[in-house]
């Protein structure tokens, strides 16, 4: 891969990613490939810039000191940090950089992992940090995606940008364990009941049994019955019937399908058995229900 060519393609992309309640504008995403003696004069940004040293080393001069950034290390210049870069000797230097502007949005709920990432980055010192989570490798993948431009490359690059930022933040935080609570799925039985309902809805045209559900869920039929009874107070058969009835009402009300066609859609062997089912569950035949709802 020609990294200069790939870097040009990557830098041309307009990339914006959203992490929780924070929109990240990627202002630049590129490679700096230098030979000989060079320097970048003192400057600052209103954004965060991640500098990953892929090859060689450089001197970074801050207003309160300086350090050497070597291959396999990175450093972050936060907004307002003045810095200058200089070559060491006249060797070959390659730096991967990604410059990001973080904009907070209004939160829909109380959780934001991105807030914690931004907090770490905002308080981080501008010092050389070992790239212990291989952000540079993810950068290489982004370059390859930009260079090859196969289907899905743009969204892959957006994902990789998010990973690069996260891996750098993780390295800065020095393996600290998170202390915030993340959203969790509902309790196991709630989640499994949702899966049971979904399976019935997806297979409404079949003559579903408790055993069918148990096989799909990798549970025993007794476990399925226990989960359903705990949530509904009734049997699995009653749940299947209630879902069939709900679907029947929807088809009667919102489609022009004949009652025979609806019977077929719901897996009944004949219109007669569908009529019997509907009358037993609702108290009157499906034709009467359809007339009633049309006259409302």
Automatic annotation (TrEMBL):
Keywords: DNA-binding, Transcription, Transcription regulation. InterPro entries: AraC-bd, Homeodomain-like_sf, HTH-like, HTH_AraC, HTH_AraC-typ_CS, RmlC-like_jellyroll. Residues 194-292 form the HTH araC/xylS-type domain. CDD domains: cupin_RmlC-like (cd02208). GO terms for molecular function: DNA-binding transcription factor activity; sequence-specific DNA binding. The keyword Phosphoprotein does not apply. This is Transcriptional regulator, AraC family.
């Amino acid at each position: 891969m020609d990294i200069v060519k790939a870097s040009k393609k990557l830098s041309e992309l307009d990339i914006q990613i959203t992490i929780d309640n924070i929109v990240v504008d990627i202002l630049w995403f590129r490679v700096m490939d230098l030979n000989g003696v060079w320097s970048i004069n003192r400057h600052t940004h209103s954004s965060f810039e991640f500098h990953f040293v892929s090859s060689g080393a450089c001197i970074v001069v801050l207003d309160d000191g300086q350090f050497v950034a070597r291959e396999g290390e990175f450093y972050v210049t936060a907004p307002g940090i003045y810095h200058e870069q200089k070559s060491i000797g006249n060797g070959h230097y390659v730096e991967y950089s990604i410059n990001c502007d973080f904009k907070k949005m209004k939160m829909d709920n109380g959780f934001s992992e991105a807030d914690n990432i931004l907090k770490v980055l905002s308080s981080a010192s501008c010092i050389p940090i070992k790239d212990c989570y291989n952000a540079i490798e993810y950068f290489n993948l982004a370059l390859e995606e930009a260079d090859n431009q196969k289907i899905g490359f743009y969204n892959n690059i957006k994902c990789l940008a998010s990973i690069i930022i996260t891996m750098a933040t993780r390295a800065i935080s020095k393996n600290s364990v998170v202390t915030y609570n993340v959203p969790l799925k509902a309790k196991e039985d709630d989640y499994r009941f949702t899966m049971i309902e979904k399976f019935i809805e997806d297979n409404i045209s079949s003559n579903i049994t408790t055993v069918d559900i148990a096989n799909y869920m990798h549970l025993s039929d007794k476990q399925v019955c226990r989960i359903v009874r705990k949530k509904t107070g009734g049997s699995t058969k009653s749940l299947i019937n209630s879902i069939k009835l709900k679907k029947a009402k929807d088809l009667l009300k919102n489609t022009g399908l004949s009652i025979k066609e609806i019977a077929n859609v719901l897996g009944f062997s004949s219109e007669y058995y569908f009529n019997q089912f509907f009358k037993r569950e609702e108290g009157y035949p499906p034709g009467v229900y359809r007339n009633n709802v049309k006259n409302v």
